[in-house]
Amino acid sequence: MRVSDEHYQAIGRVCVSLSAADVWISGFIWRLISHDWSVGQIITAEMSFVNKLNILYSLLAHRISCKEEVEIFNKQINSIVTIEHKIHQMIHAHWLVESTNIYNITRFKITAKRWKSYLRRETKPHDIQKMADAFDTVLEEFIDGMEQTLGALADKTLPPRAISFRYSPRAAHGALS
Fold first, then answer.
1. Domain limits of the chain?
2. Which of the two residues, 100 and 73, has the higher pLDDT score?
3. If phi over 0 gives left and psi between -120 and 50 gives alpha, with beta otherwise, what is residue 109?
């Protein structure tokens, strides 16, 4: 039996949101590093998502004098990392249809990094959609905060916007439905 179309659509939505987050985070790094975006592109091209978030945090801490504002970004970045980890667990799991109901999909993952573990969860499309909603909410708040902060810093030392479009995870999802 095959996985339901609703599962595929929900997984696709999560993947698109993760890809959009990667583009935004890279663009913010480019803007914080140099007036020459190519420098930032070279630096971020082969970086993992989490490493990009780490360097973004370091650049923000370097450029922003207000410690409270840096801490707000730190909390948002931690939320993004937590959800991104859950997304990767889901994406890289094995998917099984164990019953005649294609909406009752079991995903499992066997790991042996430090000890053998076995993750097994029934996953319905709405579970994946909830994860996408949570990620989109955190991402939108983060993008809005970054745009405000970078706008305030623009007059001082930052290059102009590296990304000239406005991405809304929810609007993109609506356009794809």
1. 5-176
2. 73
3. beta
